[in-house]
Amino acid sequence: MSVLIDTSVWVDHFRRANTRLVQLVTSDQALTHPVVLVELACGTPPAPRVQTLHDIGLLQHAKHATWTEVIEARQFYGRGCGSSDLTLLASTLMTPGASLWTLDKRLALLAGELDIAYMHDIH
Fold first, then answer.
1. pLDDT by residue for the chain (123 residues), tens digit each?
2. Using CA atoms, how far apart are residues 85 and 58, in angstroms rounded to an integer?
3. What InterPro entries does the database record attribute to this sequence (predicted)?
């Protein structure tokens, strides 16, 4: 089992520690994606900023979906999610045994419809 951690989960963890996220990271089950790293870099991750981003970047990476795979293959367009969210959905689908953990309601709904939503207690 592996779990692609969405930006929303990281941001929540930065505000108040999430023990489940720590467990996934320490058991090498947490996945990241360049989209998540870019979104985190656009915000204010905890200091030391560069080290935090570097450490998250060391996690295993989900497969990278092409734009065709993101938009056309599953016809994700018109569902209320942007390119970053759709990229994470497609990448999760392409990564064997992966699920997607997000706190974003629209993204979670789509992940649930695709049976790839990571379900658990938030804290």
1. 999 999 999 999 999 999 999 999 999 999 999 999 999 999 999 999 999 999 999 999 999 988 888 877 667 778 788 889 999 999 999 999 999 999 999 999 999 999 999 987 544
2. 21
3. PIN-like_dom_sf
Q: Domain boundaries in the chain? A: 2-114
Which residues on adjacent β-strands are paired with residue 100?
4, 117
CA distances to 14, 31, 59 from 80, rounded to whole Å, are 26, 24, 29
* Beta strands, E only, the chain: 2-5, 30-32, 60-61, 98-101
Architecture of domain 2-114 in this structure: 3-Layer(aba) Sandwich (3.40)
32: closest CA among 101, 111, 82? 101
Rounded Cα–Cα distance for residues 118 and 123 (Å): 14
CA distance 52 to 54: 5
CA distance 102 to 10: 9
